[in-house]
Specification:
Elements (H helix, E strand, L loop, with lengths): L2 H8 L3 H9 L18 H15 L7 H4 L3 H35 L22 H17 L4 H9 L3 H15 L7 H22 L7 H14 L2 H13 L5 H5 L1 H4 L4
């Protein structure tokens, strides 16, 4: 049979046949007087074996060693089964994350564990501050590492109480402008410090972040916030007992996403 006929019977392409010849998986048959490859049923059977094993996940590089060695094939199947189990676990975790995002209404680029710390869409906060909250939570979720967001969420249980009590402070922070009176700025700093101290105490059990992580958070604050807002955050950080990402990052949700 011709290569096109063999490919059609096996459910592959002629290009695949040529590739298998090139890497030595499928022996090349003799050519006819007209220069065409002349395949027989033996080639079809070997090709069916190859396609069956690749469908199971056997890499092409492993096929030469296992096609004609039952013992090697058994060991490879054990490894494939372990890989499949890991893939199932990874995909199950992905579905859990997708479900959590759907329940919270959070966008897919945000860690589900931190989605509750966003301001509600109906909160009426300025668009630039909503974007700041979102970007800060994304950065914070990454800097906390794989288990950090879940650990923070477990410590708080729910963000609702913290968010409810911080809403007035958040509004005042977002309203800061170059012409805000100094006494209002000083008063807000005092109240933020008082509000954040117990929050920081709960987060103190989490591992602190390194200097680079803190610098990145501060850079985002400086890039996004008004100068007076950035100064307020810096002053609050200085007055809190433990100046790390929880003060720069959880000032994020406990206040404005200050």
């Amino acid at each position: 049979m011709l290569s096109s006929e063999l490919a059609e019977l096996a459910g592959v392409t002629v290009r695949t046949l040529r590739h298998y010849h090139q890497i030595g998986l499928l022996p090349e048959p003799p050519r006819s007087a007209g220069g065409y490859r002349n395949y027989d049923v033996g080639h079809l059977v070997r090709l069916l074996r190859i396609t069956r094993m690749t469908a199971l996940g056997v890499p092409l590089s492993a096929l030469p060693a296992v096609l004609d060695d039952p013992a090697a094939a058994e060991e490879l199947l054990d490894e494939l089964d372990r890989q499949a189990a890991a893939d199932i676990e990874r995909l199950t975790a992905r579905r859990v994350g997708i479900a959590a995002l759907r329940r919270s209404g959070a966008p897919p680029d945000l860690p589900p564990e931190l989605s509750a710390w966003r301001s509600a869409p109906a909160a009426g906060i300025p668009a630039d501050m909503a974007r700041y909250e979102h970007e800060q939570l994304i950065l914070l979720g990454h800097l906390l590492g794989n288990d950090g967001p879940a650990g923070a969420a477990a410590l708080f249980g729910t963000a609702n109480d913290v968010m409810a009590t911080s809403a007035p402070l958040t509004a005042r922070f977002y309203a800061l402008a170059p012409d805000t009176p100094d006494d209002e700025v000083a008063s807000l700093i005092d109240e933020l410090v008082a509000h954040l101290k117990p929050v920081m105490a709960r987060l103190a059990v989490l591992s602190p972040l390194d200097a680079q992580a803190l610098a990145l958070i501060d850079e985002l604050n400086e890039l996004t916030l008004r100068p007076v807002q950035h100064r307020v955050l810096r002053r609050v950080q200085q007055r809190l007992a433990r100046p790390d990402v929880r003060q720069l990052g959880q000032q994020h949700r406990a206040v404005p996403h200050a």
